[in-house]
Design a protein that fits this description.
alpha+beta; two-stranded antiparallel ribbon; 9-stranded antiparallel β-sheet; 24% helix
Length: 237
């Protein structure tokens, strides 16, 4: 049974980035007139980060970034996509408020873009852990079960799994894998990306972000253990 979401932001939240993205059929006007949007956002997003070209890539599809001076949040803009990312998540209400303000500026800069191919809401979590007897104590943090042959012990040296599933009229992609957190420790990446793909329009973005957040947040709540939730709330185990 799903857990009721009690608080907007956990004091010990593992979130490192939250992203909302829209993609649309490629429009040359976006490639030619990035300055139109930049003029509308430069007061708050003054840093301009130009993409590096890579062999085999298309320059027009590589996003420019307009970022805050402290790198806490920013905008990505390419010929076929627009996104907003926050590395210091202020809670969903404030996040949505900023997304909608920026979407309105995007529509002002490029009024002919109305059809969307995809919207995506993404939670990127980094969960530090300490190995127990050399193994990853997954069960202390996440409720995941893998059906494996009985000869394979359900104890893991490393993890790298991903799955896609249909949910609530959209598609959710979840990735869990171990990684180096910093010079002194390890962590698990928990990456949740909820996408809407059918019959989308720019005028309904507010509804899409609400639906996507609800699904992504509930999936996070369903994946974490009760003990880990207590830690995130700052409660004593």
């Amino acid at each position: 049974m799903s857990k009721k979401i009690v608080s907007e932001i956990y004091p010990n939240s593992p979130l490192v980035e939250v992203i909302f993205e829209i993609t649309f059929p490629g429009e040359p006007v976006v490639e030619c007139r990035r300055d139109k949007l930049y003029d509308l956002v430069r007061k708050d997003y003054s840093r301009v980060l130009v993409p590096q070209t890579k062999e085999g890539s298309f320059v027009a599809l590589e996003p420019y970034r307009f970022e805050k001076e402290d790198s806490s949040s920013g905008i990505m803009l390419a010929m076929n996509k627009f996104s907003y990312y926050s590395r210091k998540y202020p809670g969903f209400n404030e996040f949505k408020k900023e997304v909608m303000a920026l979407i309105n500026k995007f529509r002002k800069a490029f009024p002919k873009i109305n059809k969307l191919n995809r919207t995506g809401f993404r939670y990127v979590n980094i969960i530090p852990f300490t190995r127990e007897e050399g193994l990853i104590p997954v069960e202390n943090f996440l409720k995941i079960g893998l059906k494996v042959p009985s000869v394979i012990p359900e104890k893991y040296n490393n993890i790298s799994i991903g799955f896609d599933a249909e949910r609530d009229g959209g598609s959710v992609t979840t990735r869990i894998e171990t990684m180096k957190a910093d010079q002194s420790g390890e962590a698990m990446l928990l990456d949740i990306d909820y996408a809407k793909l059918k019959k989308l329009s720019m005028s309904s973005v507010r509804k899409y972000i609400d639906e996507s957040h609800k699904c992504a947040r509930q999936l996070f709540e369903d994946l974490i253990t009760d003990n880990y939730r207590m830690f995130l709330r700052g409660e004593t185990l």
